[in-house]
Amino acid sequence: MSEEINTGVASGKSLPKLPSPSMKYRSNGFLLGLEPEMIIHSKPIEGTNYLLMKWKDVEEPSYVKASDANNKCPSIVIDFYQSHLTWSNL
Predict the structure, then answer these.
(1) CA–CA separation, 81 and 84 (whole Å)
(2) What is the pLDDT of residues 27-47, one digit of tens each?
(3) How far apart are CA 27 and CA 46, in angstroms?
(4) Global pTM?
(5) Phi/psi zone of residue 66: left (φ > 0), alpha (ψ -120 to 50 degrees), beta?
């Protein structure tokens, strides 16, 4: 009972929308051959760290395992974590 979301991509790629809010059922953009643009957010889900990835030419972001992102686009992952570092002077 899934339906497709039209993302307005010229190539016709879209991500499936499932009724379950659980992110583990969302499509992995790497498996669809999408190119990562940036990481929006990081979230632990069921003991595994997931990154909300914005894909080039796709409006709908999707969560991917952090380990997958580390392997496929390490510079984007490093940029995300560096931008979220906080330092304290104790």
Answers:
(1) 5
(2) 688 888 899 999 999 999 889
(3) 17
(4) 0.66
(5) alpha
